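dumping this here before i forget
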Amino acid sequence: MTGDFNPAGSPTLAAAAAHPTDASRCRSLNLTLGMASAATAFIILLGAASVDRLLAVFWLFGLAFGFVLQRSRFCFASAFRDLFLLGDARVMKGIIAGLAVATAGFAVLMARLVPKVGFGSLPPGATVLPLGMHTLLGGLLFGVGMVLAGGCTSGSLYRAGEGYVGSMVALVGIMLGLEISSHTWNWWWAVQISSAPLVWLPERLGYLGGTLLTFVGLLLLFLAVSWWEFRTSVLLPPKREDGRALTTFGEQLRVFGRTVFVKGWPVVVGGVALGVLNVFLYTYRHPWGVVAGLGIWANKMAGAIGLGAGELMGRSSLAGCAFEPDSASALGHMPVLNLGVTGGAFIAATLASEFKLRVPRQPLRYMQSIGGGALMGYGAGLALGCTVGAFFSAIPSLALNGWVFAGALAVGAYVGVKILNRLP
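structure:
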C-alpha cells in the first residue's frame, strides 16, 4: 500500500510519545514554524492585497481550505478507498454533509443569478459541464489514480504541506497527466465534447425540483454507505471521550484551543466547513476548483521547453476547471488558491506538531505516486475537473455531470483498491 495511508494517526506524535524530551523539542520546533509561517502568510496576504485584491482573497480562501483539510484529515481518495478497503464510511459521510451544505447555498445563489430558468441560460460560474463518455472515462481514470497515488488533488496539496514526499511526487504526476490531456484535448473536443449536452437539473425540474432531487440523491447515498459500513467494516467502534467537567474559564479556553489547533476535527465537521467555504467562494467569484491551477503550471512548464499544447479548442466556452493557456498566469487566482491550500495545511500541521518529512521507504512508491498522479491528471483533464471541481462543486451546482463523475470515481476507486491489494 501507499506510504501516505496512515489510519492510526500521526507518526510524529507516536514517535515523540516514546521520548518525552524529544517530544518537547518537536512541539517547540513545530510551534515556532507554525507561528512563523502564519506570520509569513499574513505578510503575503497584505502584499497580494496591495497588488490585486482578487489574489489576496483567493490566497485567504486557500489558507482556509488547507487548514480545514489538514485538521479534519479530509481526503476524497480516502473516502472511496477506505469504503472499499476497510468498510469505513466516515470520510464519505463528511463529503455528503459538505455536499448538502453546498447544495443549499448554491441553489440560493443560482436562483438569484438566473431567476427564470428554461431559456438556455446557465448560472455564471456554476460547474455545469459537457456530459458524455469523456466524463465516465475521466472519472474512472481519476478513481484508479487517486487510490494508487494515496491521495486526490486536494489531498496531495494538503499532504505536501504536512511533509509527505509521496504526495509531492503525485502532484508532479498530476501535472504530467494534465499536460498529456491538453495534447489530446482537440481530438476529444472534435469527436465528443463539443457535441455533449449540458444537463442542468433546474432547466428540467425547476430550482425546487432540482434541489429536492439532489437532496434525495444525497440521502440515498448516505443510507447506502451506512449500510455498506455496517456490513463490511473491519474497524473497532470508537472509544468515548472523557466526560470530566471543565471547572475554570481558562481551562475551557485551553481545551478549545487544543480542539481547534491540536486535536483532529471530526470529518463531518471538516466536510461542513468545506461546504460553507465553497458557498462563500462562489458568492465572491466561482466554486472551488483545483485542476485549473495545476493545469496552468503544467502548461507553463511545458511551454518553457517548447512542448506546449498550443490552442485548446472550445475552452473559452466551458465552466469548471477549463483555462485558456495563452491568457492564464502562473500566479493567477487559481494557482494562488492551490498555494494557499498547501500553506494552510503547513500552518495547521506545524501548530499541531504533525509536520514531518515522510519519505517513501520503497522505490516502488515513487512510481506508484507519479503513475497514479498521471492517471488522475489525464482523467481530470478529460472531465474538466477532479474530486473538487467535477464532484464537490458540480453536484451542488445541480449538474448531472457531477453524479456521473462520482459514479465513475467509485468504480475506478474499487478497481484501484483491487490493484493496491496486489502490490507488494
